[in-house]
Design brief:
Structural class of chain A: mainly beta
Helix content of chain A: under 10%
Strand order of the largest sheet of chain B: 4-5-9
CATH superfamily of the largest domain in chain A: TonB-dependent receptor, beta-barrel domain
Distance between the termini of chain A: 61 Å
Number of strands of chain B: 9
Order of helices and strands of chain B: HHHHEHHHEEHEHHEHEHHEEEHHHHH
Low-confidence stretches of chain A: 1-37
Number of domains of chain A: 2
CATH class of the largest domain in chain A: Mainly Beta
Largest sheet of chain B: 3 strands, antiparallel
Distance between the termini of chain B: 94 Å
Number of helices of chain B: 18
Number of helices of chain A: 11
Largest sheet of chain A: 22 strands, antiparallel, barrel
CATH class of one domain in chain B: Mainly Alpha
Low-confidence stretches of chain B: none
Oligomer: heterodimer
Shape of chain A: globular
Largest interface: A-B, 100 and 105 residues
Structural class of chain B: mainly alpha
CATH architecture of the largest domain in chain A: Beta Barrel
Shape of chain B: globular
């Protein structure tokens, strides 16, 4: 190890000595309009020439982000760079997204990339999303996409080695706009967007609420009578006793006999969804002269979501970027940004107070319209603010599940985010060939969240609950860089050297404070106040976390005869979360071989590149010791015994600490080529990479009988390998018409090679089905109950039905085999267009919702009928062993008709009906493999058109230029997966993937835009 | 040049600063600001007792209750439980609570108490430990004990069920006479005495080992009338209240019912004509029926375990070890040892208590048992043994120990399985344990009998 430090120190000395060359250092900065593809921005925020780079680089220009119509910068990257997959958490306005570059790289840590904005590490956190609750934002949502000049994605380890243990999941380098160097430009744009749900579940409308073929009031399932067999007309009611009077005056009485044949699926659907609307306004002013320039912008994003009621997202941002050259040598810049967003979110997931759970389970013959009103008991005593739902149609007590109207209108889940980032920077050209830069970034965000369930909300919230949660995150970043240029290093031989020496200090702190109040005292007034609960029902909470890291790094760029380009970089990192300094290294070599073999008509320019890097992943904070925590016990269904209710009691933590924890180590090799062919019309980039991550830090599950549930260890190893292809083909280039075909293709294969003997590690999900890490499988595979099999064949019970195996196992894989996108852009005269298709193939998803809708008899497949002859009806049985002849209705010709469908598992036909779906065949049964389904998709990600108005019209309004445009986002989706856009994930940015369980739906948008300059 | 040297100096200062402050950086990670580095053993006892409560009153009690006919799964995952269609993953919770939150803490407490020579703390944590192990072993049979919860041993070996029981008996013996009254029992309620509880637990263990004389001797020193030990649920708040209540109404309304259970018709006066009915000329079970079961405005199923105004309300203390159990252990042992007269006295003691609580439970005579008598059976002693077992089955409604009785006695009560021909004979080894402990016994299904219950 020691020689490595000597190497670093030696490098440091070398780099500090100024050279003799008279050429200036790279003092050029990012311009408003980058000629992307030629130059890009590297991990320390300076420009570099892509054609001389030994690693693969994907860049996206800022205007392409805006045209995608996404509120989040990251979501807008979807499909635009190879091997960068973006998964939105849900279609809720402002919801965060999961970014994955080249597969997963760690297990218990974050798999999200490092975000560098203007040379400074910034926050991309998302806090608190599990299998229930609301979808949270990510801090990247705070940015205004219009402010961004470019985004560069650095995928490989070598490109980012100087950031030490931060960049293992890749780096996204964001550069914001600068002012123009001459004159003033004012640009205003306004966009109106209409959003719709892009995929919905089908519900059956044939059988009513009830059980075993009979209508039963308040029953959870729709296993009741056939609605069309009812007598028709109004239900028979008892109007003399208790009743429910809705807020609009409608009266509901106890039903004595169900006669009504109306199916309310459409009414109930329309209660939940609407056309969302977003109005986006953006103004920017860019101005400057030879010495100074400034860029100012203000934006307002005001969105009402596709879910009826309170769902919204409102973000206002302001930015001022300012540069000034004090003299020939010294320049200053200041970039400052303010963002304020408020939103109201809708409860989702495994959650009796969630939207989809109550909506989708609602029986087809129940009308959800009236959800709130007054219940009068038999002697006329009123209960105000009563809650009516299909599980309690009179609202006499709170329903087991919320009426969706209640979820949408009565519950409050607000988030109020304030984000401020400032980045001051000084550059000093202290020698003609040496530039010294000092830059500080301060990024502070606060998120104030309120969660409120009024009294009589469903499930366990009958007596109301309120949570007030305040989260503050700060990232302080200090970055000092010296860059020197040495041209013609050894005489006039065409060897140029560029050296960089830098120091980075990062301090990340996270503070959360809040409390809950439950079992409200005053039940009929909504107050966000703890005082509405007794002291035993008030629970405060807080937590703090501090992380420090610093890196000293050096980087050498060697340009040999403008043909060979070598880059070597290394950093030594110290971090608060592990004991010894950690060394990362990266090296890359590019060879422009067309300089040797010569250019041809076919091949205009060709480059081979190779890179290798070794970087790390820092372990989480505070895992050195086995701590003592508040004692309590729970048993998995929500019931708990909380030690604070018993005078306070402590226990040794179930997680065993480890003081010897080391950073995880990621080693990556990358080989690629960049080609320009056919008179530069076709550009093609191909990259193959392979990496191995060893010593992955994991709270390894241990046998409970050891006294711990898990132990922190450098326990696991995994590998990723894959191929990335990016291409662009210019089809037509004339004065009036320009057409480009572009696209990318990528695949990544992840394999967990070692788990230190543990069978599997839980990532996210439920007891029954989870996304896990399992040895010899890709990370995130589905885990759950299986059918018992013997040499691949189902083991059937006496009735011919399969059985549950005793042990659980791997039942599917949420990772795509490959992803691709293909698009076309261009312009005809003043008309510009872009169309982008994207696909993901081979990824599976757990259809938890579908499984449960089978259980409840809601999915159409449960609402079929079969008719059997007497002989067959005496033979075919259901899961409980009952014969069709005992279950069905006999008609005149002696045939039996019964609800259900026939299936042959291997011993002849059996009947799949309520008995089957409410046991093994449904989502609550012990077997999940039936619900792991292909979730491949193809979508029209983006379709945009814009037209630059002719001079004559602009003159009419005395404006220099103007354009109008249309963007369609996510307009078309093809997928075999049922009910929901498979791009979503229930557990948000957690490392567990591919879970669907009453997740709020995804959306598509139609956007109309007008833009003009002043 | 001057400026250059300043910059170079700054650069070096930075380098030196960075490389030398590693230790300082590390210091911030040594102490977790959100957790503690240690806790006094006496502060840990309640937590261990709460784990014992969770094991005996939580998911394991519900599952055992389904297996022995007390409850029936009525909704979602619980429907499969009633079909005995369960996987190893369904048994994680009780096991891990017992080991991680219970046994591991008990052993830390015991070691610390030994060090400080705190005999009372040692005795009370020993009784908690024995209680935990007896419940665990009664459900799973062979379990890790001697190597369990030992730092450095990640994969403890399994001890035989009979050895675990012997260990518990020794542990209970060692605690006798050390803790007066019911000191150190925040998680528990009732004016019990530790020595009596220890003796009843010991009688439980010996009865399972079919050592009737030993069990009778221990029970003779066991819980007296009014000395029951309960789980403490006097605070009406989530996190403190009755766990059955929490499950039945607060968190999982409608999952668990008694409609179609084996026990309901035993008590239901409407089912008086059934052979299984306990209602007879000397007995009216109506009061007990309504204490156990509920069917009213807040019902989820046709017959709920009574979370509304009976045995499982939010503030109902849950019975852990009782005088009724102790008296019926004595009754069974006396009867099995051939002393019917003494057994009848024990049985009538229980009936006298019931008479005071619920209504009519007139004392039985010897002549009430036998062919053609009030309590029928092939012989008088067979009839009396069955009546004792049935009374215990009904008296200990909701408790795990009856599931042990049912298997030990070869189902004298005569419970009809919900599916197939036999009742589940064990809990499956939990998936979490299988995943990480190679010593976990393999090849056992739900219907393979435990060592002591063969």
């Amino acid at each position: 190890m020691k020689y490595k430090y000597l190497f670093i120190m030696g490098l440091s000395f070398g780099l500090m000595i100024p050279g003799q060359s008279q050429n200036s250092g790279s003092n050029n900065d990012t311009e408003d309009t980058l000629n992307l593809g030629e130059v890009s921005v590297n991990a320390i925020g300076t420009l570099f020439n892509v054609s001389k780079s030994g690693h693969s680089v994907s860049s996206v220009a800022g205007k392409k982000l805006v045209s995608s119509g996404e509120s989040g910068v990251i979501q807008a990257l979807s499909g635009k760079a190879s091997n960068v997959s973006i998964t939105k958490n849900s279609g809720d306005p402002g919801s965060g997204a999961f970014i994955q570059i080249r597969g997963q790289n760690t297990i218990s840590g974050s798999n999200q990339p490092l975000i560098i904005i203007d040379g400074i590490a910034m926050s991309n956190s998302s806090f608190g999303q599990g299998t229930d609750g609301v979808v949270q934002q990510s801090r990247l949502n705070d940015l205004n996409p219009s402010d961004i000049a470019s985004i560069t994605v650095l995928k490989g380890a070598a490109a980012a080695a100087i950031w030490g243990t931060a960049p293992a999941n890749g780096v996204i380098v964001i550069t914001t706009k600068k002012g123009s160097k001459s004159g003033m430009n004012i640009e205003f744009s306004s966009t109106l967007s209409f959003d719709m749900v892009n995929k919905e579940y089908e519900k059956q409308g044939i059988y009513g609420q009830g059980n075993a073929g009979k209508w039963v009031a308040n029953a959870p399932g729709s296993w009741g009578d056939k609605i069309s067999n009812r007598r028709g007309g109004l239900d028979s009611l008892r109007t003399t006793a208790n009743k429910f009077v809705a807020d609009d005056g409608s009266v509901y009485y106890p039903i004595l006999a169900k006669r009504d044949q109306t199916v309310f699926n459409k009414t109930n659907r329309d209660q939940v969804f609407r056309t969302g609307q977003t109005w986006i306004n953006n103004i920017s002013i860019s101005s400057g002269n030879a010495r100074s320039n400034m860029y100012f912008s203000a934006s307002d994003w005001n969105q009402k979501g596709v879910l009826n009621g309170t769902s919204d997202y409102h973000r206002t941002t302001g930015r001022l970027n300012f540069n000034h050259m004090l003299n020939d040598k010294l320049s200053l810049s200041m970039r400052s940004f303010l963002s304020k967003s408020t939103s109201n979110r809708i409860q989702q997931g495994s959650n009796l107070d969630g939207l989809y759970l109550g909506y989708l389970r609602t029986a087809p013959d129940f009308d959800n319209t009236d959800y709130s009103g007054t219940y009068y008991n038999a002697v006329g005593v009123a209960t105000f603010n009563s809650h009516r739902g299909y599980r309690r149609y009179l609202g006499d007590i709170q329903p087991s599940y919320n009426n969706p109207g209640w979820t949408l209108n009565k519950q409050t889940n607000t988030s109020d985010v304030t984000r401020v980032t400032v980045t001051p920077e000084i550059k000093y050209q202290w020698k003609p060939n040496s530039l010294f830069t000092v830059r500080t970034g301060y990024d502070v965000s606060t998120d104030h969240r309120i969660t409120y369930f009024p009294v009589l909300s469903g499930g366990s919230q009958a007596n109301g609950s309120f949570t007030d949660d305040f989260i503050q995150e700060t990232v302080l970043n200090f970055h000092a860089i010296n860059q020197s240029n040495f041209e013609n290093l050894l005489g006039n031989n065409g060897i140029n050297l560029h050296t960089t020496l830098g120091y980075i200090y990062t301090k990340r702190s996270l503070m959360e404070i809040g409390g809950t109040a439950s079992q409200f005292i005053i039940k009929n007034q909504d107050r966000f106040a703890f005082i509405n609960a007794t002291s035993t029902n008030q629970n405060p909470f807080n937590s703090n976390q501090l992380l420090l890291t610093n890196q000293v790094y050096g980087m050498l760029d060697l340009d040999i005869k403008d043909k060979y380009f070598l880059q070597v970089s290394s950093a030594s990192e110290a971090s608060s979360t592990y004991a010894n300094r950690f060394l990362t290294t990266g090296a890359s070599l590019a060879y422009e071989f067309t300089k040797d073999i010569g250019q041809s008509e076919f091949l205009n320019n060709g480059k081979l590149r190779f890179s290798a890097g070794q970087i790390g992943v820092a372990p989480p904070a505070y895992i050195w010791n086995t701590n003592y925590v508040g004692a309590g016990s729970s048993s998995g269904w929500g019931e708990t015994l909380d030690g604070t209710q018993f005078g306070g009691t402590y226990a040794r933590s179930s997680v065993q600490g480890n003081p010897d924890i080391r950073p995880e180590q990621k080693t990556e090799f990358e080989l690629g080529t960049d080609l320009k062919m056919l008179k530069n019309k076709l550009s093609l980039g191909i990259t193959y990479y392979t990496n191995e991550i060893t010593g992955i830090v994991l709270a390894v599950d241990v046998a409970p009988s050891s006294g711990y549930s898990s132990q922190w260890k450098n326990a696991a190893s995994m590998t990723n390998k894959g191929v990335e292809i990016d291409m662009n083909l210019n089809l037509v280039a004339t004065k009036d018409l320009n057409l480009n075909l572009y696209g990318n293709l990528s695949s990544n294969k992840n394999n967990v090679t070692d788990l230190s003997g543990t069978n599997s590690v839980f990532l996210a999900g439920f007891t029954g089905t989870s996304s896990r890490v399992v040895k010899d499988h890709a990370m995130g595979v589905f885990w759950g109950g299986m059918y018992e099999k013997n040499e691949g064949k189902l083991v059937l019970d006496a009735n011919g039905f399969p059985q549950a195996a005793v042990e659980e196992g791997v039942s599917g894989d949420p990772n795509a085999k490959y992803r691709a996108s293909i698009g076309m852009n261009g312009n005809y005269k003043e008309l510009t267009f872009n169309m982008l298709f994207e696909t993901s193939q081979g990824n599976q998803m757990w259809g938890g919702t579908s499984g449960v809708l089978n259980y409840f008899g809601i999915s159409p497949e449960t609402a079929t009928e079969v008719t059997l002859s007497q002989a067959d009806a005496d033979k075919v049985v259901d899961y409980s062993g009952k014969k069709v002849s005992a279950l069905g209705v006999k008609d005149a010709s002696g045939n039996y008709t019964v609800r259900g469908s026939l299936k042959d598992f291997g011993k002849g036909d059996v009947l799949l009906n309520q008995a089957w779906y409410q046991s093994l065949g449904g989502g609550f049964g012990p077997v999940n493999e039936d619900f792991i389904n292909d979730a491949s998709w193809v979508r029209l990600r983006e379709l945009s058109l814009s037209y630059k108005l002719p001079r004559s019209i602009c003159d009419l309004f005395h404006i220099p230029s103007a354009s109008v445009g249309f963007t369609g986002r996510n307009l078309l989706l093809w997928t075999p997966f049922k009910g929901v856009d498979p791009e979503l994930n229930l557990t948000g940015v957690s490392n567990g993937r591919g879970l669907d369980y009453f997740t709020n739906p995804g959306t598509k948008s139609y956007m109309f835009n007008i833009k003009f300059n002043l | 040049m001057k400026k250059i040297s300043i910059l170079v100096t700054i650069g070096f200062a930075l380098l030196v600063g960075v490389t030398s402050c590693k230790k300082e950086i590390n210091d911030i990670n040594k102490t977790n600001p959100n957790q503690f580095s240690g806790a006094d053993a006496s502060l840990m006892l309640t937590g261990a007792q709460l784990a014992n409560v969770m094991l005996n009153e939580g998911e394991s009690a519900r599952t055992a209750g389904i297996f022995c006919g007390y409850f029936k799964g009525a909704d979602r995952q619980y429907l499969s439980y009633s079909d005995y269609s369960m996987t190893a993953g369904d048994f994680n919770s009780g096991w891990s609570t017992a080991y991680i939150n219970g046994l591991a803490q008990c052993r830390i407490i015991r070691a610390a108490a030994a060090k400080s020579n705190n005999k009372v703390l040692m005795a009370v944590s020993s009784i908690t430990e024995a209680h935990l192990l007896l419940t665990l072993s009664g459900l799973w049979g062979d379990i890790p004990n001697t190597q369990a919860c030992t730092d450095g041993i990640n994969e403890p070996k399994y001890d035989k069920m009979s050895d675990v029981h012997k260990y518990c008996i020794d542990l209970l013996d060692s605690s006798m006479g050390k803790a007066s009254g019911n000191v150190l029992s925040v998680a528990y309620a009732g004016s019990f005495k530790w020595d009596e509880v220890a003796n009843t637990l010991k009688a439980r263990a010996l009865l399972r080992m079919k050592n009737y004389a030993g069990a009778a001797a221990a029970a003779a020193k066991g819980i007296k009338k009014g000395g029951d030990m309960y789980a403490n649920h006097t605070t009406e708040s989530p996190g403190a209240w009755n766990i059955f209540y929490d499950f039945l109404d607060y968190n999982r309304g409608g999952y668990l019912g008694c409609d179609g259970s084996f026990i309901a018709p035993m008590l239901d006066t409407a089912a008086k004509t059934l052979a299984m009915s306990r209602n007879n000329s000397k007995t009216t079970e109506t009061g007990r029926f309504y204490n156990y079961f509920y069917n009213g405005k807040y019902s989820y199923t046709n017959l709920d375990p009574n979370f509304f105004d009976g045995i499982f309300t939010p503030t109902s203390n849950y019975t852990l070890v009782s005088h009724a159990e102790n008296e019926l252990i004595l009754a069974e042992c006396n009867q099995r040892l051939g002393n019917s007269v003494a057994a009848l006295v024990n049985l009538n003691n229980v009936r006298a208590d019931l008479n005071a609580t619920y209504g009519t439970y007139m004392p039985y005579d010897i002549a009430d048992f036998g062919p053609g008598a009030l309590i029928k059976g092939a012989t008088a002693s067979e009839a009396m043994l069955k009546e004792i077992c049935c009374e215990k089955y009904v008296s200990l409604f909701g408790q795990i120990e009856t599931y042990c009785d049912v298997r030990r006695s070869g189902n004298i009560v005569g419970i009809t399985p919900y599916k197939g021909a036999s009742l589940p004979a064990r809990f499956l080894y939990p998936q979490q344990e299988i995943n990480s402990n190679k010593n976990t016994p393999k090849g056992f299904g739900l219907f393979d009998a435990l060592e002591l219950f063969k």
